[in-house]
Specification:
mainly alpha; 2 domains; 3-stranded mixed β-sheet; two-stranded antiparallel ribbon; globular; protease
Length: 321
């Protein structure tokens, strides 16, 4: 960010202060990408903590807690900050909601269901999934209660999908790519570095969680790699968050409400126990992930998002406003 003055008809550039050099790049009037990410995350964290504090102080019933309202407020605030600091539209940060966006969202839900069906088939085939009960009501006590709990659970799952995809895909990948490119890193390296950053930020916590759940570190790591791959593919192929949000929503909803863990309080069609026996079981989980990535690329091509070259992907993620 440079300031200019005119002396004797000639334009001169005033030297930038240290603060300006830290906050702004040489030619871009916007804040540096690093600060755009940090400020957006700070707003996200602040609103989330504020929301959690309010809910704790008011002692709301569990059904309200499951709506994930602090996360919803946090992501809304972070999106506003990202739009303002990045000098972009909502579409530029992945939320250009229109007919095409809603179509991609619905397609993502469909692809997510296909993916989870394939995962379930593989898991049953390897003996890693055992059904212990069916049509379990969980904490629901009657038809109306069941409908309410299911609806609230689905809304909470959607909120989780929205905030995770915005933070780990749109915010991190787009800004990290821009930041690296501004430092003269080639587009291939900028995109690759941004994807690695997103993968680590998203994948490590998920890998540790899955590894702890199944006491299988290899399975946790592989599961994280697979999920990062298809979410990134969905975002990179479309330049929008609609498709990855749809996939994320369907995958989580399936794992909670269709084939949920027996110990889970949520209603579910099948109560199951899952185990991961060995190397073959672990590697077979790759197959549904490969299928999903293929379906994502097919859908992107079908809907006119042609080209998965570095230039095409960079244009979709970074240059769209």
């Amino acid at each position: 960010m440079r300031s200019t003055t005119r002396e004797d008809g000639a334009e001169t550039t005033e030297p930038r202060t240290v603060v300006e050099q830290v906050l702004y790049g040489e030619a871009d009037p916007r804040l540096r990408a690093t600060w755009r990410v940090l400020f957006s995350l700070a707003v996200f964290a602040g609103l989330f903590v504020l929301g959690e504090t309010i809910l704790s102080a008011t002692e709301v019933p569990p059904v309200i807690t499951e709506l994930k309202l602090p996360y919803l407020a946090a992501v809304a605030g972070a999106v506003v900050v990202a739009v303002r600091l990045g000098d972009r539209s909502a579409s530029g940060v992945g939320f250009g909601v229109n007919v095409a966006w809603l179509r991609d969202l619905a397609a993502g839900v469909g692809l997510g269901v296909i993916f989870q069906c394939a995962v379930t088939v593989v898991w049953v085939g390897t003996g890693g999934l055992t059904v212990t009960d069916t049509t379990v009501r969980g904490v629901a006590t009657g038809p109306s209660s069941l409908a309410l709990v299911t609806s609230v659970s689905l809304f909470g799952v959607l909120v989780t999908a929205v905030w995770e995809e915005f933070v780990f895909r749109s915010l991190l990948i787009r800004n990290a790519t821009e930041g690296l490119a501004a430092r003269s890193v080639p587009r291939t390296g900028a995109l690759g570095g941004a994807i690695v950053l997103s993968a680590l930020a998203f994948g490590l916590p998920h890998a540790l969680g899955v590894a702890a759940e199944y006491t299988n570190p290899a399975f946790g790591a592989l599961q994280a790699v697979i999920s990062v791959s298809y979410f990134v593919a969905a975002y990179a192929a479309t330049g929008s968050l609609a498709l990855p949000i749809g996939i994320h929503f369907a995958s989580n909803a399936w794992a909670i409400l269709v084939v949920g863990r027996a110990s889970s309080p949520y209603p579910k069609l099948f109560a199951v126990e899952r185990t991961v026996a060995g190397t073959i079981d672990t590697l077979l989980i790759l197959l549904p992930g490969v299928l999903l990535i293929a379906l994502v690329l097919w859908w992107a091509r079908l809907t006119g998002h042609t080209g998965m070259s570095v230039t095409d992907t960079y244009r979709r993620i970074v240059e769209s406003s």
